[in-house]
Amino acid sequence: MQATGGATLSTRDDTADSAGVKEAPDTPRRTLRFVWVYVAVAVVSLAADIVSKVVVVAQMSPGDSVTVIPGTLYFLLTRNSGAAFNLADDYTPVLTCLATAVVIGLSWYAFRNLGSRPWAIGLGMIAGGAAGNLVDRLFREPGFMHGHVVDFVSVFDPYGQGFPVFNVADSSLVLGVGLVILLELTGRRIDGQRVTGGSRSDS
To answer: Among candidates 112, 159, 102, 161, which has minimal Cα distance to 132?
Structure first.
């Protein structure tokens, strides 16, 4: 334990001896454990997005609307050349490059710093969501890096009036970003430490 700038810093540790003296964990092994959580969440998010889009495209035609929960949830097949929630139309190649950079940069950052399961889940959801829409932009019509993203979830209106139509990848992105913001606001850091009252301690 060491005092820095008036704050108490406790290094992360998982084990303690019989006298109560804690020993530092194997940091690379600890990080790798949470990296696997990150990868698993990203893969599940990506797979859910791809499968849902394949099913919807196979069963519906553009403009079709299916009622799931009357007044609340509908399926409406649309194609989006822009970003999440139909933003930034006509910038598909730029968005493709940005999404690629996000997935690569996020994975690099996670592999170097992860020490928290909630952070691994949040970042995994962001990476999986970004990758889901990236797959559409790379491989769907009208062509490589120009593909239009498949959106099909419409809330409160059967034809997307009042709220943009979205997909599983968009939902994963929003939930992941929300979780990361919540972790930051509650003082839980990516390395597994928690900041409370000006001090940092193992979380």
So the answer is: 102
